[in-house]
Amino acid sequence: MESREEYIDDYLNDRLNNAQREMFKEQLDADPAFKQNVHLQILAQSLIESQGEINLKKKLVQHESSGVRRRRIMKILIILVVTGLLTLGFYLFHANEPVQPRNLMAEYFEPYKNPIAKRNTDDISSYWNKGSSLYATKNYTEAAVAFDRAMIEGEEPAYLISFYRAMALLSSETDGDLSQTISLLESVRNGEHDYIQQAEWYLALAYLKNNDGDKAIKLLQRIVAKDGFRANKAKELLIKLE
Q1: What is the per-residue pLDDT for 151?
Q2: Are residues 164 and 234 in the same domain?
Q3: Residue 126 and residue 146: Cα distance in Å, rounded?
Q4: Sign of CA dihedral 197, 203, 209, 211
């Protein structure tokens, strides 16, 4: 019989069938201790990575070939957290505080990969290339302006420019009106192209940044159901939001 840690690990890594996933969600709603254990298991992995313990994790993974299963590795990571090596005390102190969607957005957001500049095009005359260069150097505010001009000039497909303009706006550190960002991402996800799943993930994060947890939850549930872009991260977010 598999342990609780193995059961949680199976859920987080898509090894449960539909019936088992439904049972997992029911237990999550009904059992506070189980829910706390799920939070702990997610935290173990995220804190290991965020505090520079990647080398430790890699060393543990190497033993998998000599008989140590991946699920046992997760147990070791949890033990490290529980013993205080990764500041679990702070987490437990705040565990019962209401979750602020905006804070979760900051925790899970990272800008999408850099756009590709057009070849054989004069950088000075191409707003798309200028925006791409500014985006790559993390000058997101000016990148958004350049992408807007690229849209006016019709330099690239509208969905592509809209997506990266939304990324530039979302990546900027300002906390202003998010209506334009949300509108851009909603238009991208309603099209027919290769950026629909990415747009859904970032739209969910935009909803979180806008403190609209209900809309974020619905979209995250859709991402998980379709096994879409960042589905595992969407699972983690849903657990924290519920």
Answers
A1: 96
A2: yes
A3: 9
A4: negative
